[in-house]
Amino acid sequence: MRAFFLTIWILLLAMGATAQRARTVAPAKPQTAIFAVLDNGKFIEPIAKLEKGKLAAFGEGGEFPQALYFARASYNLIFGGVNDGKVTVHKSLIGTECAGNTAEVTVAATKAKLSTFVMGLATNLPYKPELAFFRRLPTAAERSEIEALVKAEFKKNGVASTAAEKIHYHNLTAIDVNGDKTAELVGTFWSEPARDDRRLLFFVAEKGSGGGYSFNHKNYSALKTADIMSGDTKDVDEGILHEMLIDSMDIDGDGTAEIFTTKQAFEGRNFDVYRKSGYKWTSILESYNYRCGY
């Protein structure tokens, strides 16, 4: 009997040691990810994961890894294409009503002043760009030149001159995507030709050899009230369905930052990543964070 209890005691000691070793094993390295920092810096949503140096949307080959949203998980805030502070996860909202793959966060920024239409990126990718990218408000001269281009674009697409002259905008930002100290201008403008008619324009404009700006990327769309899920053009006027700049980030280290954008939909949020090829910007990734049915 004594031998029996001695054997049990030895087995319990061994099991305890095994459990202790299991508790001290380091957690698996989390998936490398890039997030949008949204709504005045209160939330993040996933844009993409990075696999073998290439972007891919979450959901392709598996669900979003909830380990990325462990409480106090910390990510680099990217603003103006450079590191600008930290984004810390406060609480995962996965599984709560109409949250999708969203988490509550706090932001400690060096320069960024985030708002509804001023967003940033967050990532656990080791990121140390060699070039001095920047992000700032446009100058008065830059704004004037861009507004003339926008009005001309609306007129070219059939908007009457009176309506084209009364343009609205949600965002116009000067960024430097290649470290040449010359700003590219990224904007989200819209026109109201009629009560039930909205014209939307997102663009990237670059200064040419002649010294003037021109669009080297643009997305133009026309929306009637019947095209809007809510049936209310005011939702569009407040920013829904407009493509907007999040920020830029040189993810492949080639010296030219990719441009990240988002479009708030009625049932979730769309994301696009653009890479410059020659003079044009091409979308290299589209992703979507579904929340719930409208």
What descriptors fit this protein?
single chain; 294 residues; alpha+beta; 2 domains; 6-stranded antiparallel barrel; 17% helix
Question: What report would you give on this structure?
Answer:
With about 290 residues, the protein is α+β, with helices and mostly antiparallel strands. The protein has two domains: about 35-125; about 135-290, no CATH class. The chain has helices at about 1-25, 140-155, 160-165, 235; strands at about 35-40, 45-50, 55, 75-80, 80-90, 105-110, 120-125, 135, 170-175, 185-195, 195-205, 215-225, 245-250, 260-265, 270-275, 280-290. The strands form three sheets. Strands 1-2-6-5-4-7 form a six-stranded antiparallel beta barrel. The protein has a five-stranded antiparallel beta sheet with strand order 8-9-10-11-12. A four-stranded antiparallel beta sheet has the order 13-14-15-16, with no helix packed on it. The protein is globular. It starts with a helix and ends with a strand.
Short description:
The protein is of the alpha+beta class and 294 residues long.
Model regions low in confidence, pLDDT < 50 over at least 5 residues: 4-13, 17-27
Instruction: Estimate the strand proportion.
Output: 35-45%
Shape: globular
Please outline the major beta sheet. 6 strands, antiparallel, barrel
Helical coverage, percent range: 10-25%
Please tally the helical runs, counting DSSP H or I stretches of 4 or more residues: 4
How are helices and strands ordered from N to C? HEEEEEEEEHHEEEEHEEEE
Number of domains: 2
Give the class from helix and strand content and strand pairing: alpha+beta
State the separation between the terminal residues, measured CA to CA.
Answer: 70 Å
Mean pLDDT equals 90
